[in-house]
Amino acid sequence: MAVVPGVWRALSSSLLVAAPVIILLLGSGRATVYEPTWDSLDARPLPAWFDEAKFGIFIHWGLFSVPSFGSEWFWWYWQKQQQSCYVRFMKANYPPGFSYEDFGPLFTAEFYDANQWADVLQESGAKYVVLTSKHHEGFSLWESKYSWNWNSVDVGPKRDIVAELATAIRSKTNLRFGVYHSLFEWFNPLFLSDANSLFKTRMFSFTKSLPELYELVIKYQPEIVWSDGDGDAPDSYWNSTGFLAWLYNESPVRDTVVTNDRWGQGCICKHGGYYTCADRYNPGHLINHKWENCLTIDKKSWGYRRNAKIQDYLTIEELVQQLVETVSCGGNLLLNIGPTRDGLIMPIFEERLRQLGSWLKVNGEAIYNTVPWKAQNDTATPGVWYTSKPEDNIVYAIFLKWPAAGCITLDQPYARAEQTQVTLLGYSTSLKWISLDKQGMMVSLPQLNSAQLPCRWTWVLKLSHVV
Predict the structure, then answer these.
(1) Mean per-residue pLDDT, 265-287
(2) Tens digit of pLDDT for each residue in 150-168?
(3) How crowded is residue 152: how many other Cβ atoms within 10 Å of its Cβ?
(4) What is the pTM assigned to this prediction?
(5) What parts of the sequence cross the membrane (predicted)?
(6) Which domains does the chain possess?
(7) DSSP 130
């Protein structure tokens, strides 16, 4: 196996890697050295940009986009579980003996335009993007020397998808670029052999999965490494702590990279940079660790489905609500789209992203660079969520429904006479308010019809100097 110089330490056991890493980095004068232990790695402060960003886009693209039926777990459901709907689909649409590998040449990406994708992502208001560089099927979207003849340069598009998107994102947008990487592969013989040995052997992790991770980081310098799919193997099998120590200490993105919590069985919601805890995770309350809500516009699949119905897609109202609730409780929203096999972002996905962008152009100051307030939502008026900028003495009250009465009651803020000012984002005139008996306030909203409202779907009151 060819190993990148300097990486051999992290490919060794954690005990063997610790001393060489410390010696090397103390000599370089770096103030903090992270050891390959969870106690040390979990103590690393999360780079500030991630919490400030609040909103990112997930892109699930791979060979599963060719059949574009059911789910991105198509191969597993068809050949491992032999679910009847997948078996019938293959019999009806493909010749006898057709294998999953035969989807490779059909993954054409002829309409894939990374610059056009970048334009759509920029218009969404997102601050980072995460591309599935390799899903559980094992097909890599870059020219990986550890995935010979099973990658997008050798098969199908004959293009380095990761490189093209990374270049477009960095040259045309202000988004951070990140990659998703599946640790395991469903049907890789090396992984299956290691699993049969109860992971006492490490042929797959040390000759395939880990080298891919180093290759991705060194070649493309992603600022998010979104790990997934532990295959029921412990983090010691994956040598996750060794890789993360290298990533945080020596990699070209060591100062800015963020990672999630999916680094081995039992790690999720416990170890790593920020927590994902589960797909579509939204606790609805404040938790004491940075977290992310990864959510799909298509409620039933992360990959593109040709058989999706209109009711399968989240509405813009539902998406804005998810964003608001997530940010109010200290999380980031990672919103997923699934392109087609030929590289198109379908109009319904593009529409949702552009709608979010138009909402954020008016109300983004209540989302970006904010922190949770003392209360996450309001008890008097359901559907009101709070964010804040304490350094500016500002609280934002984000309300999901425009009240028919023309006024809104907030029982959480305590207003200060002659100090508190209230405005509606997108509307220039200050609003009138009165204090309630004990705590809280009532704000009179402008008398506007729907065409005159500063935006649709959700609105934001900006409250200055309240407690």
Answers:
(1) 94
(2) 999 999 999 999 999 999 9
(3) 28
(4) 0.93
(5) 55-78
(6) 8-366 (3.20.20.80), 384-464 (2.60.40.1180)
(7) E
